[in-house]
Amino acid sequence: MAHTRIRKFNTRDTYPEQKLDNDLCHAVITQAGKTVYLRGQCPQDLDTAKTIDSHDPVEQTHKVMQNIKQLIEECGGTMEHLVKIVVYITDVRHREAVYRTMGQYIKGVHPVSTGLVVSALARPEWLVEIDATAVIPE
């Protein structure tokens, strides 16, 4: 691991009724390096800014997480360097689907995470937005 993760846990233990499987932690300690702050990622293509043709929270979350992975890699890092995510969803009923999908991309990483239910995002068809911070060691 590139960073020290404090109090690692899995949401399967914290929220057993929600059938989640996300590796998270309560704190991340980084040592020197390059901090990368990503803009909130939405379900749109990074090159064209075109929203994907889906109103499914799983498909939207896949696109959001693919964008996060691609941007971290373009900055010279890997998902292992992810230290914090903030998840915005427009409907609490999508929480399990969004978090299960997101969990596939953060397995073994253990970032800190905050989740919020908001009334809307910048476009009405967007169901999820995730912003992320990574620290790439020197």
List keywords for this structure.
138 residues; two-stranded antiparallel ribbon; single chain; alpha+beta; 60s Ribosomal Protein L30, Chain: A; 27% strand; 8 strands
Uncertain segments: none
What is CATH's topology name?
60s Ribosomal Protein L30, Chain: A
Counting structural domains, the number is 1
**H/E element string?**
EEHEEEHEHEE
Structural class: alpha+beta
Please state roughly what percent of the residues sit in beta strands, choosing from under 5%, 5-15%, 15-25%, 25-35%, 35-45% or over 45%: 25-35%
Distance between the ends: 14 Å
Task: State the total count of DSSP E strands.
Answer: 8
Major pleated sheet: 4 strands, mixed
Output the strand order for the largest sheet.
5-8-6-7
Regarding CATH, which class? Alpha Beta
CATH architecture: 2-Layer Sandwich
Proportion of residues in helical segments: 10-25%
Helix tally? 3
Plain-language structure description:
Helix 3 (95-106) links the parallel strand 6 (82-89) and strand 7 (112-117). This protein has one domain (4-136): 2-Layer Sandwich (60s Ribosomal Protein L30, Chain: A), CATH 3.30.1330. Helix 2 packs parallel to helix 3. It is globular, with a radius of gyration of 14 Å. The strands form three sheets. The chain has a four-stranded mixed beta sheet with strand order 5-8-6-7, covered by helices on one side. By secondary structure, it is α+β, with helices and mostly antiparallel strands. The protein has helices spanning 11-14, 57-74, 95-106; strands at residues 4-6, 9-10, 23-24, 27-29, 34-37, 82-89, 112-117, 128-136.
